[in-house]
Fold:
Amino acid sequence: MGTDGNFEEELSRLAGDLRQLRIERGNPSYRKLEARAAKSRTALRLPVATQSDAFRGKRLLGLDTLMALVRILYAYDEYGREAAVPPHNSPRLEPWRTRWRTLAALQPPAPDRIRDLPPPGNLQALRRPAPPLPAPTGSHGFALAHRLTTRAHDNWGAVFSPDGRLVAAASRGGVVQLWEPVRGRAVGVLDAGPENVLAMAFSPDSRTLATVGVDSTPRLWDPVTLTQVGPPMVGHEETVRAVAFSADGRVLITASDDETVRRWDTATGEPAGTPLIGHFGEVGSVACLPDGGLMAALKGKHVIRLWDLVAGASVGEPLTGHVGEVLGMAFSQDGRLLATAGDDGTRLWNTTTGAAVGGPLQGPDPATWGAAFSRDGRLLATACDDGTVRLWDPATGGSVGEPLVGNDWSLHEVAFSFDGRMLAACGEGDTVVIYHRDPAEAGPVPSLGARSVAAALRRGHPVPLPAVSSTNGTPLRRLAFAPDGDRLLVHSADRRVLTWDPETGDPLPETLSLLADGPWGLEFPEEGGPARLWSRDTAGPEPLRSPLSLVQHVAFTPDGRRVVMTGGRGNWAISRTAAGGSEAIADPAPERLAVSVSPDGRSLAVAEGQTVNVFDLATLVPVERDLGSHAAEVRAMAFSPDGSVLATGDIGGGVRLWDLTARPPHSRQVLAHTGAVHDLAFSPDGRLLAGAASDGTAQLWDAHTAESAVGLPLTGHSGAVRGVAFSPDGSLLATAGDDGTVRRWVLPDPYAPTARAR
Structure:
């Protein structure tokens, strides 16, 4: 472990020593090291891309990350068998710490990422230049649509439902999040077990989601109710890495590191036949062929084998050609092609002959971690180390269009929707990127005015639209968009619900008069049509559909079956909407306190003076008591779309963001208003928090940093601002106030590079 020479040379030596240590410990794969770290009691994190950077000497890792890698390598003996993870103060680690400190002293101060530095002159000749990128052919038509924020910094994979209505992403700790990929709207979160989920699959009818991972137990889920379907499937003894449904959805196929492939009856959760046992090793992908056969691709360090799971025999000769480790793979829909991704690029194989199809598919940075075919087989997408998605023509091996950008971290996985019109990619970082294919042809050159608006949005400045006024200037309270975004409904002080066209600002004839004094809300029929008013006296025999409240002391569960009401002395009650019955905790009193139900219907937050209590809505048992830290009475609350964060605002102008996933929950103070906070709302993707207050302004904050997202407050109201709401697509913000006006702002794209860099 010498330390002579410049930084590049010493970093290369360190990488060589790490590779040698890996060989001495049985040469475990990147995925194996990642999984070993994930299940250790020390909660170490070793993403594949991070390991690759370390073993290839692309950058100097942080000290803690380097020590985590060395500790996990020492957690194997010389035969590759698992051993205890050495403690952080083990004497074996000290030489590595000393080495890191020496390297850190040699490291140039800028740029931040050493991988972006040009190699020194005396090393230039030692580096093999990357092969030129094939000239793009045509245009793929994909463009960035959404950047969806996840609950973890590492995301193992993403998968679309066959009907295209959902996309699921698996993050650390068994968390699976679901979104509507067209709108980019969060749907909910699954707690899919105690360990990391490594693979997922939707059933052909989109009604079931299967998850598998480190805990060796496949599970089935209802993606609508977010509940587990049937018991866990017990049988595997080690990590499960691949999963697929049969064509009819009746059988689930899973492949595990215990060298078995198992089939399960999806109706009962019981094994369907005996396990397929063989010397499989690590299974990277499983395919259900059109003729009913099953095929698996087995990953070695540089070699891939194909296995006919029905016949129980290998198919042809091993597939050789990779010089780096194989990290990801995918079959085409018909099973005739296999794509394998690795350090040296992506390769295509004919599964019938075992022959390579063309040369490696490589960009300027050849490393790729995942691949996916479109369902028609005409496109292959690769998830690249440089944070891009590249598209290829499998027939010619040529690249198609320009690389897709929008992610700042290495990508691990990529997936096509079944109709081929959407792409999802994820990896390091807390983002799942969604791309949409836009068939529209380029239109005429926009006017100078349109370009000026676009420039303002790119620079991160919301663009105000003309204000619209209520009849006779009646003060306005809270407001909300209809679920389809085509109407804006506002509660007025004269006990009506007024409706506007959010696009034009024109008033619509749909006006509802509040007849009852008790709690009320709005119902949106599933088949469209006008909104209907609900009150305790008008509850029908069926649960409400898409219920919505425009007062802070009333909140509905998402299924519309129950309504929660608060009173003026800290009391509250729950009523069944269908039968009009009551599960009274205390009798409701006149409007004073705020109440909010989480989007998944599991949690209830109730403000009581300066504190907030959070309850499990199913059991009414307190989950969190006395979320304090407010200096004044809390009057506004809102859950983030995934329910992980609760925003609270008080009459002194203070706003806090509570992380409900932490134990105990901790909060961050937002630099907020100078007057009482009347309303709070999260954007559909959870990235922004909006507040409305009596200081006559609305404000936008970044929900992750708790800092202002657009600079100055949004002004224009001449009195207190009572309500704030985002449109369902997150492009429009609306506010209502005591001055009797509704104001709208077109919001900048928070993901545009120029907006992020301002």
